[in-house]
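Late entry, written up from scratch paper. The run itself happened at the end of the previous shift, but nothing got recorded in the book at the time, so transcribing now.
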Amino acid sequence: MSLLLKRNLLNAAYLWKTGKPKVALRYLKKIAAARLLNRVGPRQIDIALTFKCNLKCEHCFATPLYRDNGQEMSLGTLKKVADECLQLGITVIHFTGGEILLREDLEEVIQLFYPDKNIIYVQSNGLLASADRLDSLKAAGLDFFSVSLEAADADAQDKFRKHRGYFDTALGNLAAARKAGLQTSVNLTIDNQFIHSLELPALIDRLGKMGHVVYANLPVPVGRYQGNHQMLWGEPERLRLNDLSGQFPHFRTEFDSNFGPPGCPAMKEKIYLCAYGDVIACPYIHIQFGNVKDESLAAIRERCLDYRPFNTYADHCLAAENTRFIEDYIHPTYDEQTQPVSHTKFIDKLVDTSNPVPTEIYNRNRDPEIPLVDAACEFCGPSETELVASARDYETDFRTVFTVQRCTACGLFFTSPRPSMEDLFKYFYADNYVCYQSGGVATRLRENYLNASRYRHLKRLVPPQGRFLDVGCSYGAFIHYLAGATDWEVYGCEPQPEMAEKARRQGLPVETATLVAAGYPDHFFDVVYMSHVLEHVPDVRDTIREANRILKPGGLFITENPDVEALSRSFFKEAWWGYHLPRHLTHFSQKTMAMALSSVGFQVLSSKPCFRPGPIAWSIQNRLKDKGHSALAVNALGLSNPLFVAAMTVPAAIQSMLGHSEMMETIALKP
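Output as recorded:
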């Protein structure tokens, strides 16, 4: 299941807790439309009912939007907006300000917005909340009460808000809101210093234990922060945010609620309505596309979506992280006396979809500068090559295209150019790497099946006892299985530190090292086993020479690898699972594997196809990603669905009968 779908379902669970089944069902319907039909519409509207406030916070974005003589939307206009939101399929109504609790008719406004069919949020600084007012808001249909914080301790927070006791009052009123039966959340503004502090995860954890959802807000150079670029985010801050979002399920970003791709939801899924009826894409981008007093919300939204960047899911916050966007669209608003500013003043800069510009102007390249180095055939050295395939990585968002070359002298396939091993482990062997995953029903079923089938196969080949080394053992699943099912003395080595440590916590003797670096004694093992490891190492010959050294005479070297002669490689082309770029550095056939083993003194006993249905499902999954299919389709027709994997047994069996399957097993003897 994709992380985005998990977040959607978690959101649905939060909605269910509100006791409004109609809302949860509407939300689930939107999930289904997005995942099955790729049909994405607006999900939330933020409505500033007033720009008046009882505080003067130093980061307030709404200051330039306030007008001394501004006419706030009437109840009649708000009723019109409520009906239009229902027609647009919006399920979340988020009332904000200014300070929203200054609106004495807030309860009446809430009742206009169909509280039985929508989730109703109120965003407040919390100072004006009381037990009676919270009870009254709950009775009117309010579901969530939210306050804002910017610091981890009371002194810093009170100083920031220029109000003594703010921190304690805000948390106290959140507790009162929960007592009134409301769900609660905290909007946490995080600058580029706070994001890297030790205090931030401690605060997120503390707020979560209190029962609050925590939403991350980025500081933007608008309002009282106008021109302040010192606190803008960069790539390290975005990566840190992603880490924290993964660590704490209750810690959310704007992207986590998306039905479409993870990215900026402004106007695509989330609309901001100013107190005087102006519609803008985001509270921090003070460009107006129409007024609900004059025309429909739907028409205004469609007008905005005629232009980039608002019709594109940028992978970052344009107003807080994209200096080009800030220069083009935020700086020009600074000198305008009346905000928001009409979009017609930006018509020369707004890019119509009929005249697109390169995506990278608005969508930062997420790939860090990873140097790639040319590689040569390990067995022939520099030689003539031919291009076999060009493919991206299907497991991450990296868009770099990697290439596979074929040595025309010996036929060996290899990846060139390639990242260094340091960069491979830094960027491509993260916790979400498929071979490091240990949770989920599909993963456990696949793991149990592979462990049992490998054991049944191996016990026919190897002695009933002896020393068994699993090279690249990940978190030790297979040797843990063997330790319980056999009399073998098991060992492992794994270069990824977290995985090796996870194996050791199970009591397994696992070294954090590659085979070459592990330093095992001469003639020590009866069996050296490598399941899908040799294609990952940058030094194939040194690795198999080391395996030969540590084996006893008569010992067996057993390796399982993708087979480039599989029929499916020609069918799936660059989406073939066995390329697995850039992690697979060498791509073997039965012939080139035999050549490699013989070159260091092994006697090849057998080389034959392995029956494995999973890789075909993996290739289909990659192809679906290439075609832009929904996450639901990718999960249903891929490795995540054990029933679909089982359905691939027929094509897998046919390939095996033809002599070349997705994988091959090679067994070699040390004379």
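Residues 176 and 286 are 35 Å apart (CA to CA).
(Scratch paper discarded after transcription.)
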